[in-house]
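To: structure subgroup
Subject: Chain for Friday's discussion

All,

I'm putting the inputs and outputs inline so they're searchable in the archive.
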Amino acid sequence: MPIPSLEPTLDPGALARALSGLHLIDGALVAPAGGRVFDVVNPATGAVIATAADGDAADVDRAVAAARAAQPAWAARPARERGKLLAECGRRLGAHVEELGRLIALETGKALRTESRVEASVLADMFVFFGGLGSELKGETVPFHPDMLTVTVREPLGVVGAIIPWNVPLLLMAMKIAPALVAGNTVVIKSAEEAPLTVLRVCQILADVLPAGVCNILAGDGPGCGAPLVTHPDVKKVTFTGSVETGRIVYKAAADKLIPVTLELGGKSPMIILPDADLDRAVAGAVSGMRFTRQGQSCTASSRIYVHDSLYDAFFERVRERVDALVMGDPLDERTDIGTVISPEQFAKVRDFIEKGRASGATATECSALPTDPALRKGLFLRPVVFTDIGPDAPPAREEIFGPVVCLFRWTDFDAVIEAANDSPYGLAATVWTNDLAKAMEATRRLEAGFVQVNQNLVVQPNLSYGGVKTSGLGKEATLESMLEHFTHKKTIIFNMT
């Protein structure tokens, strides 16, 4: 089987075929132990573009064994040397941004210009950021007793199992493995079935810089590949992004082994617009915050928007106009703003939520326009929907849809809108839009969310602590603190030489 060249390529189809049916274990691209593969489908056309290795417990055993064997030597390297290697990985990935952007657009249906190229850039930056934190893996001197030298040191956990989703697989993989690697751990990644190719290509690039076995990646489904990874006795930490239901399964399995976990499990993020808000700025924030250019497939999507009654009608009309102007089409076309939903199953799920919203009596306004290109007639394109006159207990208002569906609510009482925003099992993100500093500070204090912004709706960035409360998960990511708290343990050492 020919090994895909490490030279950047702008032909995503050829690269997808070259990566077909492979894991990366112990520094080499290898076929799955059982020989099974599954199809990878372009959601914009319905065409099969490649196959992916269908990993099982035997593949997990091979990958974990390679990671375990490589971990002592990797941990023994000075932390700054590990950091320099991670920074070099970031530099290499930076040279592949266009290639990776095109490949992720092909396999996920996310538009190249508005989403995929941006994600590939942030991926490279995340490795550079964490590479620079190697020097921060330091302990403390403790004033325990004047006749004793008492210090603490940070030590890696061992083999880390990382399970990543399909919506932003490059960014979320980097947020997990870059800090784990700098801290001296080795990793085994389980990719999402819907998006296995681009992350495999990233790991091939990493393997050209890192020692064999330090970074390994498997493709496969949850029961066949993910579960054996979580329960493997040599995996000492699990970091997972996905649904609440699967997160609970992962948490219970990790609890049986008494190992630490990090969980990012989604959200139903509120956006509150006060009467003094800059309307144009809030409208732009709603369109970007709802992640319409990602088809709403985002944990932090502002899918519940609470607009003060005095601004509601104007806000709705301007949002409708802005979303109508977004171009839906071929994800690889530079003119495209909105691509496709990821899979037929997700497409059907989102459509079902829209129908449930209509059945509840809400008004569903469809925006933008479906592409007319005959080559895209089988694509999973879905018009964004803005619900108005919707009740707070209607399914689209309560549940995470992971699609281009947003619910608008009127409000007049500040205390009531804060209560409504918090009336959710989720607590990942929230935004507040106002020029009143006192109200902004009060709202940010009272909102039950782990990631709160005022007058902006940024996506996750390096050095911004990211993670939720309630059923949105456990732990934070993307910072120095996440590296120290989630990927090392603290050892206390006492010298008594008297």
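Points worth raising on Friday:
The first strand starts at residue 23 and ends at 25.
The chain has a mean pLDDT of 97.

D.
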